[in-house]
Give the backbone structure.
Amino acid sequence: MANKKSLHIESSGQLCIYCGACVGICPLNCIYLDETRITFDEGICTRCEICVKACPVGAIEIG
Amino acid sequence: MASNLRPDVLVVGAGPAGSMTAKWAAKQGANVLMIEKRQEIGSPVRCGEGMSKEWLREVGIAPGRWINVEVEGARIYSPSEKVFEINEKHAGNEVGYVVERDGFDKQLAIDAANAGVEVRLKTAAVGLLREGSRVVGAKVKQFGEVSEIRAPITVAADGFESQVGRWAGIPTNLALRDMDTCLQYRMTNVDSDVRYCDFYLGKVAPGGYVWVFPKGEGLANVGIGVQVSQVKNLADARTYLDRWIDHHPGYAKGKKIDMVGGGVSISPPLKQTVADGIMLVGDAARMIDPLTGGGIANGCLAGKICGEVAAEAVASGDVSKEFLQKYEKGWRARLEEKLYRNWLAKEKLVTLSDETFDKIVDALAGVRLEKLNVHNILRAVQAKYPEVTKEFAAFL
């Protein structure tokens, strides 16, 4: 994991609006939406960054 | 509650397509359980709230208090803001009523419940149950507790972010070009017109459009869809929408009182929407009109067919993929030709320059079309700007 970039979804209420756009486009089906929380499976995620583009408010960052 | 742990039909998701499926399955005699992960059906709203109306009778939806505004038509704005008006009857599946979407979804759920459907809120599907290749129900989580619900037929009506279809091995993945990322503000004190749904085309919204759907005097949903493959920077949807508002004094003076976002598929129809013991319906089956982004009418029309076939399959004791082809064929016969045609039209539209949009809208603004179709539109454009229609020779 040391070399993998970390993916961060700002879903603490500041940016994420829980719309599910990232969930629907994730090619690996590894993002999950509860009504007030978005989580992703770090082990499956390949950091393809598609969700970053799909997010209408820029709440996902990979760095 | 315990009496219904083994329903005939398990519907995952209580949006319009789910409620419609559940209602029609119950009306045909099936024992139906519909689960919804949210605590409140229809809320929070993730929708522009525009819909056409001529299809409502076909699926048995009566007009109700969920209707906000009845519009006369649509106004299409080119990049230099030439305008072309379309009567509501010809304007596609986003124009007719502007609705209170949460009220609409609740009414459909009430209709389903009144038809005998059992509803469980705060219940999310977390996996599928299988026997060999056949889906035989779902693993669900309610109030933190995981349990199993077995059913001969499972219906995935779990919306744009559908996981159930993918768990069943039905490919519903979208490419970047097959999705618009959307953002919308509810705005008050704006110069919208309650007679029209407005659409702004061109570079203001690459691969999509800006919409203004009136909710009442001075109140409107102002939103944008941008094709994900055309997104360059973080939060482009918001940036483009804010820029559009800034450039329109009638909206820049308004106040935002609500914000919603979401994804909309703009793909061609899926190749497969059934497998052994399972059917996909609505946004989960990528049934959204790829030209307008409207999904409610198609989801409900397919939902009726899905519910009827589900009940029939259960009654006959055959829930195989082969039997469920009846649904696959049924919804395609009703929707596929238009979905495919509108997908082709959208594929062309996303390539047009602002200059071309201006010419097309300008040519249409000056004529009165008897019937609105691609052929008539192109003939009108050809009369004024013959050079523009060269690109469209295939459509003429």
About this structure: The longest strand of chain B covers residues 255-265.
